[in-house]
Design goal:
By secondary structure, the protein is mostly beta strands. It is built from no helices and twelve strands. The strands form two sheets. The protein has an eight-stranded antiparallel beta sheet with strand order 1-12-3-8-9-10-5-6, with no helix packed on it.
């Protein structure tokens, strides 16, 4: 076990107004892994959920793949997309409700070996939505970025609407080497 803090808070953003996207830039390569924790509320008219999307290092090429498993206690399913210009469909889920800020979705995103410049990047995502209006859903997702560059920036947005996120907190942690 590593001495001292294992999780080091690198940056945090708390939304106070509706925001289209959140970007973390100039990410240090001094850690072994990254963890992004999102507690957010999206907006898309009357839909129950919105899908998030992410791009790293400003890459808009078709280098992203996503495999997703989901369930809500009644139904379960899966989907897979590849050769996309971002992680989407869905990258993660957030409740969609413009009036009830008590309903949130929590997403934890693990970026393994993000600073290694010789391998593609694997990203694991766990997300859930709970609350009275939004019901509930849980997802587990594995993402691949087919690029060997170290991840130095990331932008998270709402894939379903240009309106973005109504509220939320986005915190990026570095995982210290053991």
């Amino acid at each position: 076990m590593a001495a001292g803090n294992t999780y080091v808070a690198l940056a945090s953003t708390t939304l106070t107004t509706t925001t289209a996207s959140v970007t973390f830039s100039s990410i240090s390569g001094a850690y072994t892994d990254l963890v992004l924790v999102i507690n957010a509320l999206g907006y898309f008219g009357s839909n129950t959920y919105v899908n998030g999307k992410m791009q790293v290092n400003g890459d808009t090429g078709t280098n992203y793949s996503t495999t997703n498993l989901y369930g809500n206690g009644t139904t379960a399913g899966s989907n897979r997309v590849s050769s996309q210009s971002s992680w989407t469909n869905p990258f993660s889920i957030f409740p969609a409700n413009s009036t009830d800020n008590s309903i949130r979705g929590t997403t934890v995103i693990n970026f393994m070996n993000y600073s290694n410049a010789t391998t593609y990047k694997t990203v694991l995502v766990r997300s859930n939505v709970t609350g009275t209006s939004a019901g509930g859903e849980t997802q587990a997702t594995v993402n691949l970025w087919r690029n060997t560059a170290a991840i130095t920036s990331m932008t998270i947005s709402n894939n379903d609407s240009a309106t973005g996120f109504v509220a939320g907190t986005f915190t990026l942690y570095g995982i210290a080497a053991a």
